[in-house]
Amino acid sequence: MAIAPLFGPGIMAAQASSISSPSTSSEMVTPKSGIPEIETLEIETPEAASTTSPSAVPTVTPAVAPTPEPTPNPSGDPLNSPHPIPWNWVVEQQAASEASPTLQMQYYRSPSLVSPDGDYAVYSRIQLELLPETPQDRVSSILFMENLETGDLRFVTASSPHVRNPWIPEEEYGQPGMIAILMPVAWSEGGDRLLVRAFESIFGTDLASDYAVLWDRQQDQLQTLAPTNLVYSNAILLGWSRENTDQVLFRAGNLGDEQWPMLAVDPTGETMLATEGDEPVIFGQATESFWNGPQAIR
After folding, report:
1. Sign of torsion over alpha carbons 129, 19, 221, 218
2. Among the residues of the chain, which ranges form H helices?
3. Which of 20, 86, 182, 195 is close enough to 10 for a disulfide, judged by CB 3.0 to 4.6 Å?
């Protein structure tokens, strides 16, 4: 069964194929990837040309354009994000549970992202709730932030106040088919801020998108950001802006559009086109351990 794409800020509020933003609404659709067609030119060869005047026959070396390769997507991420969620694991667990008439719970832990100063480690624990009807499955997650000096551990969920999508009522996070996953993306260069990818969708729909969750470590404050004041079907979180380090970069567009603009969103939520030459940057060290990956069933 094909799993449809995600949605952005307003997916649950839409319950259809549109997403709402504070100042506009946008239809959410998953982008299509494709290989562009290469125009074929007919070139007259020497054999086909007139032989009455050999000197008049030009020597032509046709230029062969290489066929572009599709962007690798080993994780199966629905948005082909550079910071993927373990979507292949979700699909595999769904396929394995089809024959079971009972509720099953599966868990997955992401690698830890350690701050540049080595004081904090952040990771996500994803919970997959498998129900007899696949479209009713639910995916949720808990983001853990551990102080490596003191051992203090705090956590937030996608439905937590100041973290959940502001366009979605809190009670809708428990509805059948809801997908809400938090994945750590990057620390700021000084380690004082954390950038988290919040991916949301609904099984069996074409709604899917990212928004950003920011944690200010010094002030211990959380906030959410997403592109606003424009129409798009999907937004993909990229990272911090290299040119303006307080801004977050997204790529957003609509299904069928060849060019998706890169957008910069500042801490107030103001959205603008990213400056020419800007690119996403990330900081922090991803660490692997035997705890990563699928967890034991409980």
Report:
1. positive
2. 11-14, 87-96
3. 20
Distance, CA of 253 to CA of 262 (rounded, Å): 9
**Region 115-138 average pLDDT:** 90
DSSP 189-224: TTSSEEEEEEEEEETTSS-EEEEEEEEETTTTEEEE
Give the whole-angstrom CA distance, residue 235 versus residue 231.
Answer: 10
- Strand-pair category, 234-241 with 221-225: unpaired
The SS3 assignment for 13 reads helix
> Residue 123 has which token pair?
């990771």
pLDDT 10s digits, 203-250: 988 789 999 999 999 898 999 999 998 889 899 999 999 999 999 999
Q: How far apart are CA 236 and CA 30, in angstroms?
A: 10
Using the predicted structure, report yes or no on whether residue 31 has a pLDDT greater than 70.
Answer: no
What's the predicted TM-score (pTM) here? 0.73
β-pairing, 248-253 vs 234-241, is antiparallel
Q: What is the secondary structure of 106-125 as a DSSP string? A: EEEEPPEEE-TTSSEEEEEE
How is the chain split among helix, strand and coil, in percent rounded to 5? 10, 35, 55
pLDDT attached to residue 293? 86
Distance, in Å, from the CA atom of 2 to the CA atom of 154, rounded to the nearest integer, reads 36
Tens digits of residue pLDDT in 147-157: 999 999 999 88
CA distances from 172 to 23, 180, 188 (A): 22, 11, 32
Max Cα-Cα span within the chain:
90
- Distance between CA 222 and CA 236 in Å, rounded? 20
